[in-house]
Amino acid sequence: MNSLEHPHTGDALLIEDVQNDFLHGGSLAVPRGDEVVPVLNRYLQIFTTQNLPVYAARDWHPERHCSFRAQGGIWPPHCVAGTRGAEFAAALRLPPSAVIVSKATTAEQEAYSSFQGTDLDQQLRAANIRRLFIGGLATDYCVLNTVRDALRLGYEVLLLIDAIRAVDVRPGDGQRAEEEMISLGAQRITVEDIAA
Q1: Helix (H) or strand (E) holding 120
Q2: 159 exposed, middle or buried (CB, 10 Å; 0-12, 13-18, 19+)?
Q3: Residue 52 counted as domain residue
Q4: Which of 17, 59, 140, 162 is catalytic?
Q5: What is the DSSP string of 73-111?
Q6: Which of 14, 15, 90, 153 would you label with 96, given CA atoms 20 to 30 Å apart?
Q7: Active site includes 17?
Q8: Which domain holds residue 38?
C-alpha cells in the first residue's frame, strides 16, 4: 500500500501519551515535546473530518508505580491517575469520540506499549482497523514499543515523523528508535503528505 495514500476506512489515528507530565514544566518533560501538539491537531482534523477513529493512549499510573525511582524504577513520579500531570495536553483537540486507552495501571507492571495489558488490539480488530497512523511521546519509549507491537500483530504502521519527540536518555536514542521502527516495516509520513 502506498504510504502517501490518504486516510480511509480501515485506518485509525493512535496518539501516544501527550500528557502534561511529558510536556514543558511536567515532571518528566520530553525535550521539545510541546511541538507535537499543533502537528497532531492537524492529523486530528483530517481524521475527524472523515469520521475515522481516533485512539489516545495515556500512562495512568498508581501512586507507587514500579517505574518510579522510589519503587526502584528509573523515572520520577509521572502521570499518576487522576492528577493534572496525567491529563492530556489542554491544546490537544481530541474529538469527543476519541477512545482513551489507559496503560500501566497496576503498581507492579510497566507498559511502554499501548497494547500491553490493554484491550487495544481487540478494539481495533472489532473496528476492522488494519492501518495505524502513530505519533506522540516519546519516540524512544512508548512510540517505539507500540509500533513494535502493532507490526508484530499484523497492522500496517505509518509513523508520524513530524509528530514524535524523544527523551534521549542516551544521545541518539530517538534516532536509533526511528531507524528500528522503519527497519521493522513502519513507513515514515508527515502531515503534508496527506493534507493536500
Answers
A1: helix 120-126
A2: buried
A3: yes
A4: 17
A5: -SB-S--BTTSGGGSBPTT----TTPEEEEE--STT---
A6: 153
A7: yes
A8: 11-57+92-103+110-195
